[in-house]
Design goal:
Layout (H helix, E strand, L loop, with lengths): L1 E3 L8 H5 L5 H18 L3 E6 L6 H15 L3 E7 L4 H14 L9 H19 L7 E5 L4 H11 L3 E5 L8 H14 L4 E4 L14 E2 L16 H10 L17 E3 L5 E3 L13 E5 L8 H18 L12 H9 L1 E6 L11 H13 L3 H4 L2 E5 L4 H14 L2 E4 L8 H8 L4 E4 L2 H6 L6 E4 L5 H12 L5 H15 L2 H16 L1
Parallel strand pairs: 2-3, 2-4, 4-5, 5-6, 6-7, 10-11, 10-13, 11-12, 13-14, 14-15
Antiparallel strand pairs: 1-3, 8-9, 8-12
Helix pairs in contact: 2-18, 3-18, 4-5, 4-7, 5-6, 8-13, 9-10, 9-11, 9-16
Length: 493
């Protein structure tokens, strides 16, 4: 079935324009979209994806839809709901194949199940559509359903792909071969990066990078006291003052394998110790385990340096060594059961838990594996506060579609360490906006990059300011909405 998601328009363009930092971007959007909105002539634009929570797509759509509505566009959001767990297991495998991993073999039973489920979804979607509507379908899960429904209704259609890989492999070629007949039925295809466009769409696809809402709960300005208050409410920091906690607080992995409020067995030191923090959904491709192993390697190296004088050229200063010795690593993600279209989340988290338990006890105390509060709004506030309080925000993805967690941290003027893959390397310019990890799968490479950043305190302000400027110019909501209206307008012409 197709579930309609209710979206409230939280802010108008005038609200954003009251911020002097955003005023120019808002005005440019308004000036450039007036004709495109008029050309729609009251048509409804349908956005269809696989989940209303969890992951970058579900986070972007409400803000994008709200802004489009503020500009006068009629937009609806539909989410597919499927009873077959095997359907999402298969589409997750397609997701991994597009990133270049997994087996290239696709069985006839998998094809038949995907087509049968898609046929039912197409019937449900067709009941919602009118011939003059515009259908925008996101990623592989609803791809075939959208293609069938659009063809039967005769409405214009766009497929939006948020994932991909710069390199082709047998797995990725098998995935594109499977998807190509369905993609061919759409009038246009939209990708985040040129490198992700498959050969059969070369020169024909539209490019629209993802973007963030600078005033969402995850990105809005927070004063230091507000950030500390959010962390205290989520049980991520201890306080002597009475603070009402969220209904569901953050949970931290314990030595016995259970989860307890994140201040147990003791406060982790988020506000007072150098902290490296990565926040992502639990996915093997996010590189949590090599980040953990790289951090542990760096800590061991610093411990072996203790008592030596390494202030000579090429060595660590005493301040540098002290920063490493006191550093902590926070690996943060959602409760995997809350992300409906990612059945591998629990397995990826279990692998990270096992790697954490393999650490010596003193290193385990320096690494926190944390599940965020279950409430979506409260979880967004926690991410905001964590990224603002962290000394370094990391995104060690082995493969990445675009990496909005990087965009969000850049907007907050965080010190960034990211892997040189996908959209991360596009956003984060090496040595200008932060540092790129040459090989995210190699703990030694991770350790060396973290070491260099912790030793470059004098460059942090320059990197963080450049990062925020880059997001302002390239990756805010206003530019994304303008590009979408341009794409839809070109389609209607």
């Amino acid at each position: 079935m197709i579930r309609i998601v209710d979206v409230e328009t939280e802010r108008t363009p005038a609200d954003y324009a009251s911020d002097t930092v955003l005023r120019r971007s808002v005005r440019e959007m308004q000036e450039e979209t007036t004709a495109a909105v008029a050309a729609l002539g009251g048509r409804t634009v349908w956005m269809v994806n696989s989940t209303a929570s969890g992951g970058g797509v579900a986070e972007m759509l409400p803000k994008q839809i709200g802004m489009l509505r503020s500009l006068g566009v009629d937009v609806e959001w539909g989410v597919i709901e499927v009873d077959s767990p095997q359907f999402f297991e298969f589409t997750k495998e397609i997701h991994n194949r597009l990133h270049g991993t997994g087996s290239p073999e696709i069985t006839e039973a998998e094809r038949e199940r995907y087509e049968a489920v898609s046929r039912d979804l197409a019937d449900a979607l067709g009941e919602r559509l009118a011939p003059e509507d515009v259908l925008v379908v996101h990623d592989p899960q609803p791809l075939a359903a959208g293609a069938l429904a659009a063809a039967e209704m005769g409405c214009p259609s766009i497929w939006r792909c948020h994932i991909g890989s710069e390199e082709r492999s047998p797995a990725s070629r098998a995935a594109w071969d499977f998807l190509e007949p369905w993609i061919a039925r759409y009038d246009d295809a939209v990708f985040s990066l040129p490198a992700y466009v498959p050969e059969f769409l070369a020169g024909e696809a539209t490019l629209i990078p993802p973007a963030i809402d600078p005033y969402s709960a995850k990105n809005r300005p927070l004063k230091p006291q507000q950030a500390a208050h959010v962390l205290a409410r989520a049980a991520l920091v201890e306080t002597d003052h009475p603070v009402p906690q969220f209904d569901g607080v953050a949970q931290r992995l314990q030595d016995d394998g259970s989860y307890a409020p994140a201040t147990e067995p003791a406060d982790f030191g988020l506000l007072f110790r150098p902290t490296v923090c990565q926040i992502s959904r639990w996915d093997r491709l996010k590189g949590f385990v090599p980040l953990l192993e790289g951090f542990a390697r760096l800590k061991r190296e610093a411990a072996s340096d203790a008592g030596t004088e390494n202030d000579s050229e090429g060595g660590r200063s005493a301040e540098h060594r002290r920063r490493i010795e006191t550093a902590r690593l926070a690996l943060v993600g959602p409760d995997p059961s809350s992300v409906a279209d990612d059945p591998e989340g629990r397995e990826a988290l279990a692998e990270l838990e096992a790697a954490w338990h393999d650490l010596d006890s003193d290193l385990r105390a320096d690494v926190a594996v944390v599940l965020m509060p279950p409430d979506q709004f409260e979880s967004a506030l926690v991410i905001n506060a964590l990224q603002r309080c962290a000394t370094i925000v990391a995104q060690n993805s082995l493969r990445e579609g675009f990496g909005l967690t990087v965009t969000e941290a850049m907007w907050k003027r965080a010190v960034l360490v990211g892997s040189d893959t996908g959209g991360i390397g596009t956003q984060l310019r090496e040595g200008t906006d932060g540092r790129l990890i040459p090989d995210a799968a190699d703990p030694e490479s991770v350790a060396a990059t973290l070491d260099s950043v912790l030793g470059a305190r004098g460059k942090w302000d320059d990197w963080s300011l450049n990062a925020q400027r880059r997001v302002t110019e390239e990756y805010l909501l206003f530019g994304q909405v303008t590009r979408w209206l341009d794409a839809i307008g070109s389609l209607l012409e």
